[in-house]
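From the pipeline queue, job 12 of 40. The input is one protein chain; the requested action is below.

Action: predict structure.
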Amino acid sequence: MTHIDRFLDSTRLNLAYWAYVKKVAHKLGSDGCTGGTQFFRDACLEHDIHYRTKRFLTGVSIDKDTADYIFRRRMQQKSIFRKFSPMSWWRWVGVRTIIGRLAWEGKL
């Protein structure tokens, strides 16, 4: 298990962590799951924070690949299908496109 996976496991059900995600996302003006349903909204908020700040909430730097991995894994953690969640894979493919790259670079 990687340190990222340990972090994901340790924060998955941490209510204080998710309250902080919502607070920071609100300050950044995040709309959650842009252009999509609000399923897995918390994962979308966390992903928006990563994209806009290029950091974890702890202040540690994050790269796009890691931000996108965390986004997919968060949805899988919440889904009854876990790693086989179709929506997690569709949304992950979506952020891996040129549109996702432009969003990461702040050009959208």
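Job complete. Residues 64-78 form the longest helix (15 residues).
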